[in-house]
Design goal:
Elements: E1 2-6, H1 10-22, E2 26-30, H2 33-42, E3 47-51, H3 59-68, E4 75-79, H4 84-93, E5 97-100, H5 105-119, E6 126-129, E7 132-135, E8 140-143, E9 146-148, H6 152-163, H7 171-178, H8 187-201, E10 206-209, E11 213-216
Parallel strand pairs: 1-2, 1-3, 3-4, 4-5
Antiparallel strand pairs: 6-7, 7-8, 8-9, 10-11
Helix pairs in contact: 2-3, 6-8, 7-8
Bound molecules: calcium ion.
Calcium ion binds near residues 9, 51, 53 and 54.
């Protein structure tokens, strides 16, 4: 899952990017409204954290312009304490949720998990596909109840696939959602990751669809 943080307070921006990266997301950062607006319009984020008070273009206008351009990613707005009119304005502009400053990073993480999950049609934070279970709160992956140790990149891949069970996902889409914009992207590395992930899972749930990409499906039950 790939996120965008738009926050002009450099320290806060850095803290958010660090915490989100540790939580297993690929993260891009923007430091003013113009840069944020451009990135949100051109890159496919799974969710965005957007400060309202931004230089160049304010947060509510950035959000409005994304929605007008048909960008539907979930947006979590950061507002100043007790500024209820900001909250109303941001929901009207197309926000999905808000957090009041100062905040605990755990609250941001929990709200983001919920937004990302709901955007892909999941109500529970436990994602299940046949014998595979991913607990998005702890980042634990279980196969038949046994924990599987994954690297952070493997977890990102697994989490993305688990959020989109049954849908064919191209290599390009994976590259766009697993790496931040500064990463040296190469869709061949995706094949390597998928290979490693299959090996670690030890069961046949990630299928290759020739010429199209991959699909995560429960293993076919043995014929009766
Ligand atoms: Ca600000």
């Amino acid at each position: 899952m790939r996120l965008l943080v738009v926050e002009d307070d450099r320290d806060l921006n850095r803290q958010l990017v660090k915490a989100l990266t540790q939580a297993g997301y690929a993260v891009d950062a923007a430091f003013d409204g113009e840069e944020g607006q451009f990135l949100g319009e051109t890159e496919p984020y799974d969710a965005v954290i957007l400060d309202l008070g931004l230089p160049k273009i304010d947060g509510a206008s950035v959000l409005e312009s994304w929605r007008e351009a048909g960008r539907a990613m979930p947006v979590l707005v950061l507002t100043a304490r007790d500024a209820w009119s900001d909250k109303v304005k941001s929901f009207d502009a197309g926000a999905d949720d808000y957090v009041t400053k100062p905040f605990h990073i755990e609250e941001i993480l929990a709200r983001l998990r919920a937004l990302v999950r709901r955007a892909s049609g999941h109500a529970s934070s436990d994602l299940v596909c046949g014998p595979v279970r991913v607990d998005t709160r702890s980042g634990r992956v279980l196969v038949n109840g046994e924990a599987v140790r994954l690297t952070s990149h493997e977890y990102r891949l697994m989490s993305y696939l688990m959020h989109h069970v049954g849908r064919i996902i191209s290599r390009t889409e994976l590259v766009e959602h697993l790496y931040d914009q500064d990463f040296d992207r190469d869709s061949n590395t995706i094949e390597v990751f998928v290979g490693r992930l299959r090996k670690k899972l030890g069961i046949d749930v990630i299928k290759t669809i020739r010429g199209l990409g991959y699909v995560l499906e429960p293993p076919t039950p043995p014929a009766a």
